[in-house]
Amino acid sequence: MTDQEYMQMAIDEAKKAEVLGEVPIGAVIVHEDEVIATAFNLREKLQTTISHAEMLAIDKANEVIGSWRLENCTLYVTLEPCPMCAGAILQSRISRVVYGAKDEKAGCAGTLFNLLEDERFNHQVQVTSSVLEEECSQMLTSFFKQLRAKKKKKKI
Questions:
Q1: Where is the binding site for Zn(2+), in residues?
Q2: Boundaries of domain holding 79
Q3: What is the pLDDT of residue 138?
Q4: What is the pLDDT of residue 156?
Q5: Which of 48, 66, 119, 137 could bond to 101 as cystine, CB 3.0-4.6 Å?
């Protein structure tokens, strides 16, 4: 499968989050051309800080692989990883990250910082950005626009 096809799977995961009222972010982890984990944001439902799509997918992939090391894995995620997720990606030894939309407020895979390719760490991750960027960005923009409209309506 191509990066675009795997990213479409991550978008499908993000749509599951949106149905629950969660920020629509989805993640897919692929090992040797096989999807081993999928996840979407559950921070509001679970009320835990670490319930980002990437973190949940990494946890599932660890179970499947039977190790904390996710070498030779690619993580596809609809939004650029934040500092917390970038740290978990480094620590899990994921080889490659492919993301859709840039995160101007928290992106740590090239936008604000690039933790994943920083040579000061003992592991670096290959980063591919902007895969299906328009679709990923539009989904987030639409979600937050609707959220603001609901909040404005409640104030009236």
A1: 52, 82, 85
A2: 3-151
A3: 97
A4: 63
A5: 137
Binding positions are 52, 82, 85
Q: Quick one: CA torsion of 51, 129, 18, 44, rounded to 10 degrees?
A: 20
Q: Which of 13, 18, 22, 54 is catalytic?
A: 54
Residues 45-70 pLDDT 10s: 999 999 999 999 999 999 999 999 99
The amino acid occupying position 32 is E
Q: Is residue 156 part of a domain?
A: no
54 is catalytic: yes
How far lies 83's CA from each of 40, 80, 107, 134, 142, in Å? 17, 10, 7, 23, 24
Q: How far does CA 47 lie from the centroid of its chain?
A: 18
CB distance 52 to 83 below 8 Å: no
Token pair 């982890």 is at which residue?
29
CATH number at residue 122: 3.40.140.10
